[in-house]
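This protein record is not my work; I was only asked to verify it. The record follows directly below this note.
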Amino acid sequence: MPHISRKPPGKTVRPAKMRSGTSLVRGLGAALALATAWAGGATYYLIFHDEVLARFVSQQSTMQYGYESRIAALRLELERTTLEQVTTRDGLATRLKDLSRRQAALESRQGVLSTLAGEAPGRHLPETTVEEEAPLDPAARRPGTAAKPFPTPEPSTDFLDLRGARESARRTGITVAHLERRLDGLAEAQSRAIAGIGANAGRTVQRLRGLVARIGLDPSRFETREAGLGGPLVPLSDDPFGLAVAQAQRVVAEAAGLRRIAEALPLRRPIAGSAPVSSTFGARLDPFTRGYALHTGLDLRAETGEPARATAAGRVTVADYNGGYGHMVEIDHGHGLATRYAHLSAYAVIPGQWVAAGAVVGRVGSTGRSTGSHLHYETRIDGEPVDPQRFLRVADALDP
């Protein structure tokens, strides 16, 4: 039976030559596609090369500008902070210099206060030193040296240290502000002290003027006429403290002058203790004639030999027997004031001798026109006898 060749349906059997041609065609197609792709890429690169490059350059420029802007901002912040520190340092240096100047002024004022306070003992004066709080160099406080303020912090050049530098400047500013408040308080205390000294001296002036007036003397009697004075007019400073000092000095000087006047007055007792008065000043029955006569002094009971003492400082003008006075000592106290100590039994001074207040000038006796042992004590103003009680009554009103 003859062989019949069977082929699967729908499939054509091609010869080997035909299959080889097909493969070649496919290879050529692939090569053509590759060439086309390369040509397209090359064409795209050639066409869009400038745009890509420009975009790349733009991105790089943007990044560079960003870094430069950040660096510029950091540099600006650093310069600003450095400038702030320099300004702060200069400001602190100025404030510290002002503190040193003010402290020197307060110390000078304290010297004035101490001098004036000598006329008003017992007053408390404020201390001016702020060394326990002011950061000053201890070595600079030796006599003859000036105070050196502590150094202010130098501006930092490291941006990372800016916060610490600012904090240091802040603390320094707080310390300086505290010292300024401290000096303000001291200045106020000194102003109160000078006002108190002036007020105290004013009260002393009024009291001493009253005492002198009660004695019956005019304070102008004790004023010394100054020599010719002159010179250009230089107005006082308008500084309140300086004006207060000038006013206080004037009142204190007046008080001191009145106190010297009071000390020169015969206000002490010629016999120690409270010697009883046997006869007062003025009209009385004379012990010898039994008629009325002027008694020019004060008779004080005392035993013979008891010391008679000067009631004020002065120069002895008489130490001799003087008629009815018996043995008598007379002392000139200046400004027309004189005292007499009569009926003495003995002298303790000689004419021309300067005696202090309370010095023994003689011994009590009964010489001259006397009926018994006692001291006849006289006070005279411009040669005229006045009642010694005018002086003795105000003795206890003086300062001890």
